[in-house]
Amino acid sequence: MALPTTDLLIGKIVAIVENEALSISSVRDEIDEIKQELVSMKSFLQDADGKKENSEGEETWVASVRDLAYDVEDIIDEFMYHIYEKQTGGLFPRWLHKIIHIPRSLWYKRQIANKLQKTTKMIKAIPERNQRYAIGGVEGTTSSIDVDKWVQNQAESSLFIKEDELVGIEGNKQTIMGWLMDEEQHQTIVSVVGMGGSGKTTLVAKTFTNESVKRHFDCYAWITVSRTYAIEDLFRCLIKEFHQSRKEKVPAPAKLKDMSYRELLEKLVNYLESKRYLVVLDDVWDVKLWTEINISLPDRRLGSRILLTTRKEDIAHYSFGVVSHVHLIKPLDNNEAWELFSKKAFSTYHNRFCTPELEPLASKLVEKCKGLPLAIVALGGLMSSKKSTTEWRDVYNSLNWHLTNNPLLDNVKSILLLSYNDLPFRLKQCFLYCSLFPEDYLIRRKRLFRLWISEGLVQHVQGVTPQAATENYLMELIVRSMLQVVRRNETGRPKAFKMHDLMRELALSMSTREKFFVVYDGRESVMEEIGARRLSIQSTEGTEIKSWIGMSKLRTLLVFVTGIIPLSFSNALPSGFKLLRVLDVEDMPLDKLPNDLVYLFNLRYLNLKGTAIRELPKSIGYLHNLHFLDIRKTKIEALPKGFSKLLNLRHLMMYYNNKDYNDFKIVSGTRATSNISKLKKLQVLSRVQSEGNIIRLLGNMTQLTRIGITNLTERDEMDLCDSIQKMKLLTNLSLMVKDEEEFLRADNALFSPPPHLRKLCFIGKLEKVPHWFSSLDSLTSMHLHWPRLEEDLLSHIEGLPFLGSLTLVNAYVGSELRFSRGFVKLSNLQLFKFPSLSKITVEKGVMPNLQFLTLNSCMELKRLPHGLEHLTNLQTLSLEFLSSQLIQSIREGGVDRPKVQHILEINHFFDSSGGRSCESLSPRALYRGGNKLALYM
């Protein structure tokens, strides 16, 4: 019973009534009573979660609880508005009272009390009604045990799949077999990891049933592990399987059943004492399994092997205390996916080929599967009975419905749902929230973190910051293969990720049913009553956002520009938006904010990034609850005077211009008010323009963890260094001078740089390398832009222990760069615009972990770096605006061709008549298929 949305609502309401104890004193009894009811509901729902699939009666009961929780949220929000209006002296316009029905009379609090009493009675009536109609005890409900048994049967059926039904599995099977039958005598664990349906079990099954593998071991056993297992039952299964593998008489079931834990363990250990064994543990959900089962699998240095499959990366990479290997499942490439789909979808067609008129739709359906074998096979089977273009188009347009309602796709739904159902209670709504973003959307980590926190999805843990908690949430979703990492930073931390299309379709279906949110994609002619608290608009229609029934319940609005003609706001927000907590209109072509924006008293998060807005409202200070504001890439040049009233603001991201790396001026900072230092809760301030005494005042903001300052001059040095030294919590620092001839001075007066600084960006001319660069022991990323140094920079930073990313733009006026030692953690090196650079030397052993190298606008460079062949971990070499002589040197037959044989990807970017173009100079075909897998589990 997955009820994360109800938990979220109840948790938020309880937090509100606890945090506003003084404000609600006049209705204390009513608040306390409903709070106890809500806490009891929450506890009961958490206990029920995961025990059963919902019956129709239970669905009705859940909907009743959810809707009443929504009602309580509305009452509390109205009450908080009334209190807020009183505190601000009635600054809001009269018409707003009519819109959200908030009277101004003295009997208002009594009215709120009556509403709460009425709602409490309705809550108490739910169990009485359930008992009257016997809801919760309906026969025929599918239990979790039945689901686990079905999954086990599906997994073990993989042992009997014919080889001709598989696609591209042979290479991966040989890899696994090599680990199983190598010369290592110690016990070894081989882990195969990937999302549900990626082909883990099929690969392992085809390896396990291979005759060469069977002959290599004295005995073998296959165990499918359920999420709720009993270790004694696993011991019994092992005993049975081992005996069967040797064609020995299996102990009687009754005898095994009567054995105690100790007796079963003793029997297993004695049986395996002198045998080389192979054990498959399929679908492992918890590393606790290994701690319980390994005692029964002795290591007698006979070459025994444990082969396990799991959806969770943390299990695969767990230190088992023995030799281990990890095989990461990757999606099928396009050709393999099409081949597998064709085997199923066109098995009854003439010559088993797709007809030309169906090919475009078939390609789109295969793309939807994103290389997931289970989905490809199931969808291919569904489409095998569809013959007309109309039938194919109907399935494509309603794939969400088919995924949750069509019996032919039940296996896909069930396998994917297992991952969702295994999530901790607090993580389910975070996962559902990711599907608010459009299909294939690249979700940025920081943006998602801010949204999760603003929505109240992050559970408060004493001693843990909200940012740290969200980091844990994200990593847990990633290691469970629920999200796919697309980009990582220099330390390997995820920067951006996507949802698999089918996981997203499943999440959309669940979110709509539970009224967690609704996605509007323009397919319907009008937006009908939605009833949900969140709305994600992803439409290419050029219609205006107007009011509709149910909009008054809305707390979150996200708008995504998905086409040429996006949706647009009128000058006034529709009345239903007045209780919004989150408003995200990133990249929407807005040039003016609605006047009503300042009356969104509930607003926590406002994202205007990439819009054409020129100014913020002068009365923006009314948004007292605003925590996050993003105005980057807008045309806002200055903050209004009332900005300092935003006392709860935590993150302020801003700049109004950005250019290419080959220009000096990357961004233009935003002018701040002189009293911005009043914002004592502000943690992130990026980027503010230096003006007046702003630099000195920033020294009072010692709570800052990230700051960016532009428009600096030489005379700012003393105030700048003094302020930076006070910011002991600072992790990110970005400094930029007024113009390219201005010196950036932050050296002589800075005696102790922030001790936890991880990212440093300097934009401007440097007389010399600051002396404190060499002491930045926590630094992971350095970006030096336009310093035009005459001295050797590399010797000052080569010893930084955690430096993972180094970007140098017009940083050195000399003719040679020599990497002679150090840079042990450097994985990403970018060199832009070195006008005099003619030689780069890399000594052997330097930059041993470099994976990405970019050379851009270094026209005097005629040859690749000397010693490039020593960079054995280099994966990608990007070349842009370089001499034709250098490019020719690495083409087939070129003098530097032997240096790049080990590099997987070499891209040459250049300008052509058609615009910016790219050609691949890779010396060998890039094997993107990686772990080619197919079919089922």
UniProtKB/TrEMBL annotation:
Stretches that traverse the bilayer: none
Keyword field: Hydrolase, Nucleotide-binding, Plant defense, Repeat
Disease resistance protein winged helix domain residues: 436-507
Gene3D superfamilies assigned: 1.20.5.4130, Helical domain of apoptotic protease-activating factors (1.10.8.430), P-loop containing nucleotide triphosphate hydrolases (3.40.50.300), Ribonuclease Inhibitor (3.80.10.10), Winged helix-like DNA-binding domain superfamily/Winged helix DNA-binding domain (1.10.10.10)
Single Gene Ontology BP annotation: defense response to other organism
Protein name per its UniProtKB record: Putative P-loop containing nucleoside triphosphate hydrolase, leucine-rich repeat domain, L
Limits of the Disease resistance N-terminal domain: 9-87
Annotated NB-ARC domain residues: 170-347
Pfam families hit by this protein: LRR_14 (PF23598), NB-ARC (PF00931), Rx_N (PF18052), WHD_DRP (PF23559)
Domain Disease resistance R13L4/SHOC-2-like LRR residues, every copy: 573-883
GO MF entries: ADP binding; hydrolase activity
